[in-house]
Design a protein that fits this description.
CATH class of the largest domain in chain B: Alpha Beta
CATH topology of the largest domain in chain A: MetI-like fold
CATH superfamily of the largest domain in chain B: P-loop containing nucleotide triphosphate hydrolases
Helix content of chain B: 10-25%
Order of helices and strands of chain B: EEEHEEEHHHEHEHEEHHEEEHEEEEEEE
Largest sheet of chain B: 6 strands, mixed
Number of strands of chain A: 2
Number of strands of chain B: 20
CATH class of the largest domain in chain A: Mainly Alpha
Oligomer: heterotrimer
Number of domains of chain A: 2
Strand content of chain A: under 5%
Strand order of the largest sheet of chain B: 6-7-8-3-9-10
Chains: A mainly alpha (about 325), B alpha+beta (about 375), C mainly alpha (about 280)
Helix content of chain A: over 70%
Number of helices of chain A: 12
Largest interface: A-C, 99 and 101 residues
Largest sheet of chain A: 2 strands, antiparallel
Order of helices and strands of chain A: HEEHHHHHHHHHHH
CATH topology of the largest domain in chain B: Rossmann fold
Chain lengths: ~325, ~375, ~280
Amino acid sequence: MKPKPFSQLSSKPKRLLEKKKYREALSALLLISLAAGLNIVFGYFAMFFAFYLSFFKWDYIGPMEFVGLKNYEVIVKDIIRGLSGAFYTFAPFYTGLRNILLYTAIVVPVQTILAIILAVFANQKIKGVQFYKVAYFLPAVTCPVIVALIFIWLFMKNGFINYMIQFIAPGFAPDWINDKNYLLYAIALVAIWGTSGHFMVSFLAALQSIPRDVYEAAMLDGAGPFRRFIYITLPLLRPMIVYVVVMGLIGALQMFDLAWVMAGSSGGPGGAGYTIALDIYNEAFIKLRPGVAAAKSVFLFFLIFITTYVFQKKYRVLPR
Amino acid sequence: MARVLLKNVTKRFGSVVAVDNVRLEVKDKEFMVLLGPSGCGKSTTLRLIAGLETPDEGEIWIGDRIVNEVDPTERNVAMVFQSYALYPHMTVYQNIEFPLKMARVPKHERHRRVIEVARFLGIEDLLNRYPRQLSGGQQQRVALARAIVREPEVFLLDEPLSNLDAKLRIRMRFELRKLLHDELKVTTIYVTHDQVEAMTMADRIAVMNKGRIQQVGSPREVFEKPQNLFVAGFIGVPPMNFLEGTLVEVEGRIKLDLGEYQIEVPSNYWSILKNHVGRTIVMGVRPQDVYISIKPVKGWYKAIIVGYEPLGTETYIHFTIDKKKDYIAIAKDVDTIRLGMEVYWHPNPNRLYFFDKNTGKALY
Amino acid sequence: MNPRVRKRLWVIATYVVLSFFAFIYLVPFIRSFIASFMTWEQASAYPPQWIPNPFTLINYVKLFRLELFPRWILNTAIYAGIIVAGNIVLTSMAGYAFARLSFPGRDALFSALLALLMVPAFITLVPNYIIIYRLGLIDNILGLALLGIANVSSIFLMRQYFLSLPQEVFDAARLDGCGPVKAYFYIALPLAKPALGAVAVYQFLGAWNAFLGPLIFLRSPENFTLPVGLSFAFARTMWTEYTPIIAGSLVAAAPTILLFIVLNKYLIRGIAITAGKG
């Protein structure tokens, strides 16, 4: 067997390499094209189109008219009106913004802390614990619209929730849904009830990945259950806490379903249940101003992007 | 004819050269073991032969053709993986049948061959089971059956015994060799990091390190005539002792100057070492060839005991000359040994190795 | 304190806390279930009553007098069916390619897709409405489904699953004569049953419960899905009594609740795969 001359030698292996790679890349393209294509169109193209649209005046049918920053001016004027105390119907975006910030400030911390507490208790190795996990997770698999419908009934003036409350705080019986001072809190309570179970499961997964011997070592070092939680569990849960808070922020800031059902598309009494998401919907599909809706959704996008970015920047630990 | 030939094969992963200009010939029906520490490129070499990786440079020959451009399936090689890589969702029967099915062998022919192979390996009772229902040894047999059923010209095995427990490993070592070499008479390339496996199974061993072949030879050759420091240090348990020093000539006699004292080099090595006087040389001596005495003997050297490990039939004695580096000797009778004791040692004068410190090459 | 006593006390405390929360999470369901067999008069009584008296099915009867209610159930089932089928096929293929094949731009493309998880749905809403409108698929379940048949979290879940399979099995298949596409059908797909199951269940839940998409992309009442239909039909002003709404809610939620109760172990474990990707 004579070796081939070197000139052939260098080119040949490359060719197979290319043939193989070409074949593999072609197969891969075949397999991912639909999934990737759909997401690029409905995700990226749509996102960039929204930015583009936010500089145009349009009614879905006629020609698009470039208006520069006019659509953003609508938002700014709305906020200025709101800040100077205009009635809520004259400053819908401001109303939605104010509500959603308050709502988020309540929902995200409470649901995160509640989820951690539930997870820690449900992570005990005791009998029947699966039943409790099922109970806590059940609201999370139930449609938010249906949850909201049921809670409207429970939140009635003479409803079940006020009945339970009088055992703790006698005499406190607001008309949650119809009172503009309580509507947003009612929605927040429903949201917390509905999502904390979902995040509990995330924390359960994280808890189960903490090695047992770390706890045993801490026990030998003399740490009781409470100190073990503070010094071991919490720091090790930190990446998951960041994840849950970020997901919670994204969900809370664009809350729509619960407000739609519990407050109605106009935001209920005094606009107390109005949100940015509802406002975008109304701009786009009721007032038929897609340009303004796009500008408002760009605003929401940056609101979410900045809050989640700042939060991650501040609290994210180095990648594991 | 199914010899395997690697001509100057190089494989890089990014900036890492996994296989570096490897030349290796595996003769027809030969049992070749690629031996080396983890990360030495032996598995990559095997995967190159299988066609799972493509070489950056060089030629791979199987039989009388270059297979660089041949699809793995058409190379007539079969491979047994470390984890056996059985298909978990298929029964044993389906596992063995799968390569035939992919090759579009007619159904009745497939059936005949699966049964034949299963019978040959004594696993015909397991055909309807799933891999998870089998023991490690049984899974190993199924993996072998799946490889054999294709009637390959070359058999590639990647650490096939490392997932078995120690007892089974020793039995399978023997059986694998018998099966592949004596019964099937097929060219076999076997990758392992376990030198005992290599020594007991191989016709020839190719010792690899850092992507390069260090030495190719029969088990006896690599043990008795290591070509460089790496092979000398890698083969043999416990590893060879290396004493580093300057070669000096004193009154017509060649000695190795260790600093603490000079060791007399036996005269049978003089002719080899004459030209190296004045250079730094590493002298190697296997623990089996170090003699220890607790009483002074004329011409023996002083040492201090720093530890000992009784292993039942023999004891490893750790001693030091300069209180920095320690060396190992194997002794049978050690009742009087104590830590810190001053003893006297001497190498077997006929079983010494000398290496050039700079090149690592053995001097013969 | 004696450590055994202390341990016993700790267990009791744990049960108390667990049960307290279980009460909070379950009581709305229990309360609704009981009330759905009550007259509105009894269901709205204060203090609350717990035993239906008289026991009545009138709420369910009234519910099915809503002509479109069965239609909505059917629509939701069709929508969920398309979403589940689409995700199983498309995301298992994409997940496999991302995990086990190499091609130029693979990692960049995957990161780009993953980043979409952080993009709020509202920014894409109006443009997607326009795209679907231009395709002539407004008020059509197919148009709505098109937006969700290749969910990014499903792609992620499938990819993670395929990455967790041992490389050697795919190497073995390669030597046995499987090209990249054959290996998908013969090896990857049969091995992916657990992940496919998880994708199917999550996508079913998501589709069955979806609201915003159906609200915007479906226009005529006979094309509504359950959540949209119920949210309109049960606008409070239309009803003098609330018990049929409760009955309707329970009927609509029943498939997801039952599915969850049957598969709870599997589902709760499945979240562990998806969680923590951030």
